[in-house]
Amino acid sequence: MPGPRPRSAPGEVWARRVLGVFRLLVAALEVAALIGNFTYVLGFRFFATTNFFSYFTVQSAFLAVITLTVAGIYALSAPRDPAWLGIVRTMVTVYVLVSGIVFGIIVAQASTRDYRVDVPWSDTLLHFVVPALAIVAWVADSIIAVNPKVPWSTVGWVLVYPTVWLAYTLARGSQLGWYPYFFLDEAQVGGALGVAVYCALVLVIFVTLTAALVALNRWLWRLARTARDRPAPPPRTQDLRAPRDAQPASRR
User: Fold this and answer.
1) Three-state DSSP class for 101?
2) Phi, psi of 2 (to 5 degrees)
3) What's the rounded Cα separation, in Å, for the pair 128 and 34?
4) 3-state secondary structure labels for all residues of 189-203
5) Predicted local distance difference test score (pLDDT) of residue 5
6) Which of 46, 126, 156, 177 is the most exposed place for a label (fewest CB within 10 A)?
7) Category of 177 on φ-ψ map: left (φ > 0), alpha (ψ -120 to 50) or beta
8) CA-to-CA distance for 33 and 210, rounded, in angstroms?
9) Separation CA 201–CA 196 (nearest Å)
10) pLDDT (tens digit, 9 = 90+) per residue, 131-150?
11) Are 92 and 64 spatial neighbours (Cβ–Cβ below 8 Å)?
12) CA nearest 6: which of 75, 72, 81, 80?
């Protein structure tokens, strides 16, 4: 029969609460970015609501809002997160990071493809600010090391959602002739082979980022646990014995 769980130290409780508030603030910032971006694209002549919600960035942002909100509530109300939440948080962190990386590549290549990509404040939040804050929250959790270590199986799980999204996007694009990203359109990348090459590149980014985060989490977790479990040095006791030459001489 397992014994009772050890109580969290006061410092861990305080750190968890700060982290919980931070998670909720990042989720609120993500909501503001989504609202601002939706308002921005409403001004486009050929705007379609379904297209907006088909972007991987937008879908991963919604996942981030849900995950960060749940994680924030856990951090404020429980001594540790469940193991599954660590896996989901890692995957969602990778999704928003990849969204920022891909968006940066698209902006960088815009000039070479004779089109312009505007970056309003909402896109700046979605693709750069929120991913940076998400990784800060993720690293802070690893440093606290209260939650279970992120398992290596996360590297496989992270590909499930992007694979489903890719199949949906390619099937929808073949019917409508619209793709959320240029590298999914055969007409813009030299055919199916060009699409496959870009998808393989993004796949490598997913796997590499996830493996790096899992390795970092486990390394920081071990460091924190080792420091926490290291026995404290024994207190220094004062030697009350008087020196031999200081003892009073005995009477003869």
Assistant:
1) helix
2) -65, 145
3) 13
4) HCCHHHHHHHHHHHH
5) 46
6) 46
7) left
8) 25
9) 9
10) 999 999 999 999 988 889 99
11) yes
12) 80
Here the tokens at position 232 are 């404290």
Instruction: Give how far Cα 6 sits from Cα of 71, 73, 175, 221, 244, Å.
Output: 21, 21, 57, 17, 48
| Contact in structure between 74 and 82 (CB atoms under 8 Å) | yes
The pTM score is: 0.83
Domain boundaries, the chain: 10-225
Q: Are 131 and 96 in contact (CB under 8 A)?
A: yes
Q: What type of residue is 147?
A: N
The C-alpha atoms of residue 30 and residue 23 are separated, in whole angstroms, by 11
The beta strand positions in 12-53, using DSSP E, are none
Nearest one of 13, 30, 136, 10 to 80, comparing CA atoms: 13
Q: Is 173 helix (H, G, I), strand (E, B) or coil?
A: helix
Token duo for residue 73: 């509530």
Q: Which helix (H) or strand (E) holds 188?
A: helix 186-189
Write out pLDDT tens, residues 22-40.
999 999 999 999 999 999 8
Helix-helix angle 160-176:83-110, to 10 degrees: 40
Contacts of 214 (CB under 8 A, 6+ apart): 90, 150, 151, 152, 154, 155
